[in-house]
Amino acid sequence: QVQFVESGGGLVQPGGSLRLSCAASGSIFRRYAAGWYRQAPGEQRELVAYITTTAGTNYAESVKGRFAISRDDAKNTVYLQMNSLTPEDTAVYYCSTRPPFGSWGQGTQVTVSS
């Protein structure tokens, strides 16, 4: 069973930055696109960014130009660099394949507040 473990969240002031990491069991990211998702309170989970097996990237309009997704296949790890954070980015962030596969991990909480 594939497992995803997210880390790197925290409390940050508006305009700040965070780098999230996602470690996957096995080599699933070598075979499928990897995605970062987020879910804000009372909202549906949404796709934030994804990266293909050939390193092509795609971003939600709300984060384009501020977030950057990358991957390290040797470590089965995907990263999300988040810059110029706003309170609207507050959410629990999850990773998975794109489209999602298997169970969701616990996610990592990102809170943007002054």
Task: Outline the structure in words.
- The protein has 114 residues and is mainly beta.
- Helices cover 4% and strands 46% of the residues.
- It has one helix and ten strands; from the N terminus they run E-E-E-H-E-E-E-E-E-E-E.
- The strands form two sheets. Strands 2-10-9-4-5-6 form a six-stranded mixed beta sheet, with no helix packed on it.
- Strand 4 and strand 5 form a beta hairpin.
- The protein is globular.
- The model has no long low-confidence stretch (mean pLDDT 95).
The count of strands amounts to 10
User: In percent, how much strand structure appears in the residues?
Assistant: over 45%
Low-confidence residue ranges: none
* Fraction of residues in H or I helices: under 10%
The best one-word shape is: globular
Cross-sheet strand order for the largest sheet = 2-10-9-4-5-6
Average pLDDT figure? 95
Radius of gyration: 13 Å
Helical element count? 1
| Major sheet details | 6 strands, mixed
- Along the chain, the helix and strand elements come as EEEHEEEEEEE
Amino-to-carboxy terminus distance: 40 Å
Structural class: mainly beta
Identify the notable features of this structure and list them briefly:
1 helix, 46% strand, mainly beta, 114 residues
Can you summarize this structure?
By secondary structure, the protein is mainly beta. It has 1 helix and 10 strands. Strand 7 (67-72) and strand 8 (77-82) form a beta hairpin.
